[in-house]
Amino acid sequence: MQQPREHTLKAFDEDLDRLRAQIAQMGGLAEHAIGEAMRCLIQRDVDGAMAVVQNDGKLDELEVEAERRVVQLIALRAPMAGDLREAVAALKISGVVERIGDYAKNIARRVPLLEDSSQLEPLSLLPEMARIATQMVHDVLDAFVRRDPEAAVRVVERDQAVDDFYDSIFRTLLTFMMERPQTIGQSAHLLFVAKNLERVGDHATNIAEMVYYAATGEHVAEHKKKAP
Questions:
Q1: Span 90-98, mean pLDDT?
Q2: Does domain 3-226 correspond to CATH entry 1.25.40.10?
Q3: Mean pLDDT over residues 130-152, rounded?
Q4: pTM of the model as a whole
Q5: Where are the alpha helices (DSSP H) in 78-125?
Q6: What pLDDT score was predicted for residue 109?
Q7: Where are the domains of the chain?
Q8: Quick check: 183 and 177 in contact, CB under 8 A?
Q9: Residue 95, Cβ neighbours under 10 Å: how many?
Q10: How far is CA 59 from CA 32, 50, 104, 141, in A?
């Protein structure tokens, strides 16, 4: 009498694994888009930046497909408790990953407007900030695929480094704009880029919190309270 239930559980796990793989694919595209947008910013590659903008449509399509898969999964398998948390987390995470792709697109759109920014010192800080933020995205989606709540917590703990970069860049750009009014336009564009990278870090943190909750049924804040 247990075989049908076991079969249903196996089918659910297989469906969820396919969904995780698709979301991981989305994450890879988002990571690549951020890396390309930053490369184009540093190298003044306007054509490459426009390609990043145009390629964003693929992420949009994958998000719609992920949403369809989750709805179908819930309707057909009727998951409960932890399984339902996993399905709902997958739905939310796909939307967040799509928004991370939007931030890459936003950065790419600034490239044609930043042709005269090579003398702005904060430009040298942005690639490292982008590296940390994209590594957070990579690691948190890896934690999602592996159902690893502790790895998710470690991603949350790294968000402060991205925030610190943003604060440093903000202060430096503010000084530039006060001392050299002619740099206000270019500085404002770089500040916009930095803000988008800071939001990428925030979204990676949001995903980490979803991963932790899906795996444990608890919130990260509760985990921190229990930590020695």
A1: 95
A2: no
A3: 95
A4: 0.89
A5: 81-110
A6: 96
A7: 3-226
A8: yes
A9: 12
A10: 12, 16, 11, 15
